[in-house]
Amino acid sequence: MSTAGQVIRCKAAVAWESGKPLSIEEVEVAPPQKNEVRIKILFTSLCHTDVYFWDAKGQNPLFPRILGHEAGGIVESVGEGVTDLQPGDHVLPIFTGECKECRHCLSEESNMCDLLRINTDRGAMIHDGKSRFSINGKPIYHFLGTSTFSEYTVVHVGQVAKINPDAPLDKVCVLSCGISTGFGATVNVAKPKKGQSVAVFGLGAVGLAAAEGARVSGASRIIGVDLNPNRFEEAKKFGVTEFVNPKDHNKPVQEVIAEMTGGGVDRSVECTGSVQAMISAFECVHDGWGVAVLVGVPNKDDAFKTHPVNLLNERTLKGTFFGNYKPRSDIPAVVEKYMNKELDLDKFITHSVPFSEINKAFDYMLKGEGLRCMIRMDA
Q1: Is this prediction's pTM over 0.90?
Q2: Which distant-in-sequence residues (6+ apart) come within 8 Å of 63 by Cβ?
Q3: Which cofactor(s) does the record list (predicted)?
């Protein structure tokens, strides 16, 4: 029996208020409107960004809301005007989009779509400014245009990557956010040459994905920098060869790295969002050719300063968003890298819980245990 065009009743994990455990509720999911698709979510994982907005510190709180943005699923139905997706397609919903028509989408150099780039404040669909989720007729807000903590969700077609149907969704779903962000920061932006040295600041999932990018690129030395020494053992699986804990030294970590490497690393990737780490990441690269890439999201009022001579001495500072990948055009090829065993995703997934126990995933992340927790929707 087809559900196309009808309201679907299903389970969703609703955040009713800041910092309170999510509550599994029956929600109504409206059919997709113009340029939208309704997706049956099979697997979703928890990313730090979900926790940040659930905690609602330092941004506009918007509740009740269905969080979640790292996921994989199957298209259930499509709205008017959708031509490149059909029911049954395997897809990754993505927190940022690609309309394929704006100046950014038409530029080879950008993935910052004017229409669909990340918007953390928007709680409704672009088409009509309304939510597709409700409980007893009261709207529940969307999150990042994806809201994957629901058995069904509605997403703008420009935020949906169609992928190889043979790819295991419980593995490749992590490519819809954190892993692509870190991996792409290294391979697309820092671009280390074979044999070069790379420093990675922050050894969470994104930082380890950056390290994996350095490993795949043939880096000779990958130096991991983190304040938590418990992360060092795990990081060896991702190609990290040496570790520096800034707390172990009585001088700035950039000086420590410069001494270790005879003047600085060739590339650095900053994945913490701490301005101190950003300065260190920039100042630890070698003059003449060093490139530092910023990935981590800073606090609202942050700023950092460095001496202009650091730039005049031919160091480069770059920023990246979602690893410089265009969601619809580029992510399917990253999935193929996994299928061809060029990229290992299994080691990023350290925990697994049924949907009914989604709050356990939050506990793991708040305690800093593991990397990614896979949430199985059918369980």
Answers
A1: yes
A2: 15, 16, 17, 18, 56, 141
A3: Zn(2+)
